[in-house]
Amino acid sequence: MVEQITITKGQTLNEAIVQKFKAGFRGELISPGDAGYDEARKIWNGMIDKHPSLIARCTGAVDVINTVNFARANKQVVAVRGGGHNVAGNAVCDGGIVIDLSRMKGIRVDPVRRIARAEPGLTWAEFDRETQAFGLALPGGIQSTTGIAGFTVGGGFGYLSRKYGMTVDNLLSADVVTADGRLLIASDRENDDLFWGIRGGGGNFGIVTSFEFKLNPVGPTVLGGRLIYPIEKAKKSCSYIVDS
Questions:
Q1: CATH topology of domain 15-100
Q2: Which of 6, 140, 170, 228 has the most CB atoms less than 10 A away?
């Protein structure tokens, strides 16, 4: 009898097919019944309780490509997890395959050119720790545990946005795995329509496996606080803010 991986929604994956896929997968595959399954399917929003057929913790772009091709060949829906911080729970699915990017945490900072190349599993705390070593930053998440990937492809607005724009305004290029398993470089010089789409279009156009950002001089010491004006100066104060 051929074993099946079965979840509550009735989706199944043939165990033999999964094992064959596993042989060429460098990361970790987690199935229902495995010891770490319940922990692996958790995301930031504890109200979300979904049960994927398979969780693929990728270690690089090749793992992502292979998982996309495997999911397409086996007619599985796909959810993509970076930091897993999306309130709606889009980072996990019932049935189907979760492509988990959380182990892809590589980052390289060029302090002379003020450019960072970063993988999608990084959180903003991890990203900022590397860039701040050189007094550099970009408009990132206010919550340090948020992942850089979902935040960026959603547009991205943070404390520095009033001076340096949205996160996507600082995106120079991205490596993107498309639904047909191709790895494309998207920038304003090549695949510019895809580049336009991923800057605010969420995860609807592909899976980003690497981001290239321009960085801005900020920190490592930053002053912050509130400016409080008496109510009788409200009109003048608001006019100054708008005009500035």
A1: 3.30.43
A2: 140
